[in-house]
Amino acid sequence: MNSKIVGVVAFVASALVACNQFKVTTTEDGDRLQVHEKGESGRLPKEGDLVTFDLVIKSPKDTVMKSTYLEGAPVTLKMQKMGFKGSFERALFHIGEGDSTTVLVSADSLYAQVQQPLPPDMPKGSDLKFIVKMKKIQTEKEMETEMNKKKADEGKIMADYVAKNMPKAEKTAEGLYFVTQKAGAGATPKTGESVVVKYTGKFMDGKVFDSSEGRDPITVPLGQQMVIPGWEVMLSKMTKGQKVTVLIPSELAYGAQGAGNVIPPYTPIVFDMEVMDIVTKK
To answer: Which domain holds residue 36?
Structure first.
């Protein structure tokens, strides 16, 4: 056979395989999915399972409407049979652990469900794209076991972090570790006074989850429980002008609940904090 013909045949065959690999399939439930990558476990979620996944939502014009990659944390939710035929919630039952899949959802149906008109830039009959990377599927018992282990290991994880990153840290009676980066002066604040603070919040791997950088410092009235307990403890020991790096255990941060999809349960967190002013209530 002519080598040119062989080349054409091979090209067409590879193109057909590629098209078939990423074709849109419709399930019996009416869910439309485009599988980009299959995970190795083959595990699919069941009702009541907890699923953790990264998600990008794109408009019909490919504008990014939501991205957990930009937000810094994946979504975790409990699987329930809900939503309309062809909804994203139903489609999740067909996405396995480790899978990368795009779910096509009718914009008409979605906005009708929430009783909202279609946005002007979203044509009637168009689809939204929900691009999912399924990271983990767990039963509630499996999640509970994982959280108990994480809680039990937290002390050692903090001690290892301090030994490596904060060897000169002081430890408070409450369990905070802190290092003074810049000394302050004057008296420490009292309950009822307000502390003006610049801050950056980080995970132990250095990833920032919140910061006042580029914004005004925040004002924290002490004793009113408007911040996590670890902040109350640390601020009560600081003076005006002082800057510290503090490691806060989860029980003085966001504990067993975590903070939405940003801070997982039983997660120690690190803050750089600088007291800009201490304001006495008049």
So the answer is: 3-138
Strands (E), 8-99: 24-26, 32-37, 50-58, 64-67, 75-78
Handedness of CA 119, 120, 123, 125 (dihedral sign): positive
Backbone dihedral angles phi then psi of residue 143, each to the nearest 5 degrees = -65, -40
Give the CB-side neighbour count of residue 260, counting CA atoms within 13 A. Answer: 7
Instruction: Say how far apart CA 250 and CA 74 lie, in whole Å.
Output: 19
Length, in residues, of the chain: 282
Distance (Å, rounded) from C-alpha 32 to C-alpha 25? Answer: 6
Q: Which two tokens stand for residue 45?
A: 């979620």
Sorted by sequence, the CB contacts under 8 Å of residue 113 that are 6+ apart come out as: 83, 84, 87
* pTM of the predicted protein model: 0.71
The reply to whether 169 and 254 lie within a common domain is yes
d(CA 86, CA 139): 25
> Digits of tens for pLDDT over the chain (282 positions)?
455 445 554 544 454 444 445 689 999 889 999 999 999 999 999 999 999 999 999 999 999 999 999 887 889 999 998 889 999 999 999 999 999 999 999 999 999 998 999 998 899 999 999 999 999 999 999 999 999 999 999 999 999 999 999 999 999 999 999 999 999 999 999 999 999 999 999 999 999 999 999 999 999 999 999 999 999 999 999 999 999 999 999 999 999 988 877 898 999 999 999 999 999 876
Tokens linked to 234? 């640390």
Tell me: do 166 and 234 sit in the same domain: yes
Q: Which two tokens stand for residue 123?
A: 């044509």
User: Is residue 173 located within the same domain as residue 119?
Assistant: no
- What CATH number did the domain enclosing 195 receive? 3.10.50.40
